[in-house]
Amino acid sequence: MKLNCITYKYLSLTALVLAAVLLVQHPARAQQMPQQVNISSSPNPVGSGARATGMGGAFIAVADDATAASWNPAGLTQLRTPEFSFAVSYFKLRETFSAAFHPETKGTQEVSDWDINYMSLAYPFTLFRRNMIVSLNYQRLYEFDRDMEFDFMGSSGNPFTGTSTSFSQAVDYRQKGALRTISPAFAIQITPNLSFGITCNFWTTKLFGLNGWETNSTVKGTIRSSNLFPTSFTTRDHDRYSDFNGFNMHIGLLWNINRYIAIGGVVKTPFTATAHHKRLVQTTIRQSLGITTRNHLKIRESVDIDMPLSYGLGVALRLSDRLTVSCDVYRTEWSHYILEDGRGNRMSPISGKPSHQSRVKATHQVRLGAEYLFIFPRAVIPLRCGIFYDPEPSEKNPEDYWGFSLGTGIAIDKIIFDIAYQFRYGDNVEGDVTDIPHARADVTQHTLLMSVIYHF
After folding, report:
1. Mean per-residue pLDDT for 119-134?
2. How far apart are CA 2 and CA 398, in angstroms?
3. Residue 18: enclosing H or E segment and its boundaries?
4. CA dihedral angle for residue 128, residue 130, residue 136, residue 142, rounded to 10 degrees
5. Hey, which residues does 111 pair with through a beta bridge?
């Protein structure tokens, strides 16, 4: 889900200029503009927590703390005492845009934010001679914050009439929001070596206020024609998606083959979410001789969003009591990611095209991680690292994103403190918000996570 947050964007800036003019005489046409969803964090389903992040997100077959509910709930059976965990995160996104035929758009945009990433309360117990555990978890899964400003120009001509038209515009784009869940989980140790777990994710607004995203954009521009006086326009667009509600599950298995090798598998089920969509577009067009025309468009509707199936397999090698190496592979079926608006139009939130015309392929993540423990009489200090390939869905072929992570912490008696840094980047990837022809972007994402675990 770069659901790269969920907000609708314009087909292109050229289309936006035309829409601003057409809106005056044909307001209904603006409702037919393609809808896309822009998430600022990775759109791929991943888990939470500083320890897993420090290992590059290769955690399916490790999953031995409370954040297992978000990675592989079967791993929860490895907890032996009740625990409370709390994690905060800092996220910074930097995008440098360029377009071969529009050098005026070149520039760098940045946005950053602090927030609660994860909270959980886990309680293990024994019943029918089986180790079991229940936990209650809060997860902040997708970031939508984005701030952008850029200029854009274009022109066209008619060789038969000898007329030409050009336009220039300044765009100010602000987006904010997040998607969160409340997630109870349960796990049972079926045999000494095999565990099963399930996490129920309630995507709900009732506990968080706004569970969704909103965009405020302003476009100011001028249209010039060789046989007409210049026309200036201003379009202000407030687009809000709220009350994002849905339900899905994480179903996991963990098989400890022996003391050295563990294999884990997880399925993150598809689901259909609903959201309230409210949009207000206000357009002012100033023509020659002081003629000013104002119009506005209001949309209120309920939209359905089909979220895709995701599944993964992980292997962990416990080479000693101190050293663990792990590897995960994920697949997400992005062709099944579809948005249906209030008029029954079904579109791909990735390409903005009708779903039957869109060709969005599945993505495959690959994650490698390691953890080494320095064991002292009164404390344990871990060192963690990881690398990963985390592509984003796009029309035709996925866009390549890579990254690495580092982590450490300290465990003293009943308290564990972990910290992790993750760097994720994409070089010369598609500029998904600007929609300028042939636009590309160099994208860097910095994430810092800090967590505290207290064992009762």
Report:
1. 92
2. 12
3. helix 13-25
4. -140
5. 93
User: 180 is written with which tokens?
Assistant: 């969160």
CB burial string 423-442: b at 16+ within 10 A, e below: ebbbeebbbbbbbbeebbbb
Q: Could you give the CA distance from residue 176 to residue 209 in angstroms, rounded to a whole number?
A: 14
Cross-strand bridge partners of residue 108: 96
Distance CA 301, CA 405 (A): 41
DSSP letter for 41, please.
Answer: S
Smallest CA-to-CA distance from 205 within 262, 263, 250, 246 is with: 246
Instruction: Give the start-end residues of each E strand in 204-291.
Output: 212-225, 228-256, 261-268, 271-286
Four-point Cα dihedral 426, 171, 111, 120, nearest 10: -90
**Tokens (6 digits) for 195:** 């565990």
The predicted-structure confidence for 178-211, as pLDDT tens digits, reads as follows 889 999 999 999 999 999 999 999 998 776 667 8
CA-based R_g, the chain, Å: 25
Sign of CA dihedral 349, 352, 356, 358: negative
435: CB partners within 8 A, 6+ apart: 9, 10, 11, 12, 13
> Do 27 and 379 contact (CB within 8 A), yes or no?
no
- Residue 360's pLDDT is 87
Contact 15/26 with Cβ under 8 angstroms?
no
Neighbours of 449 (CB within 10 A): 25
**Rounded distance, CA 186 to CA 13, Å?**
48
The answer, yes or no, to whether residue 452 has pLDDT greater than 90, is yes
pLDDT digits (tens, 9 = 90+) for 133-150: 999 999 988 888 888 787
Q: Which two tokens stand for residue 37?
A: 């969803």
pLDDT for res 438:
66
In whole angstroms, give the CA distance from residue 200 to residue 455: 24
d(CA 252, CA 69) in angstroms, rounded, equals 9
State how beta strands 292-307 and 261-268 pair.
Answer: unpaired
The answer to whether the pTM exceeds 0.70 is yes
H helices of 158-235, where?
A: none
* Concatenated DSSP letters of 67-122: THHHH-GGGGGG--S-EEEEEEEEEEEEEEEEETT-GGG-EEEEEEEEEEEEEEEE
Residues whose CB is less than 8 angstroms from the CB of residue 177 and which lie 6 or more positions away in sequence, other chains included:
5, 7, 144, 145, 210, 212, 213, 214, 241
270 within 8 A of 246, measured Cβ to Cβ: no
Residues shown for the chain = 456
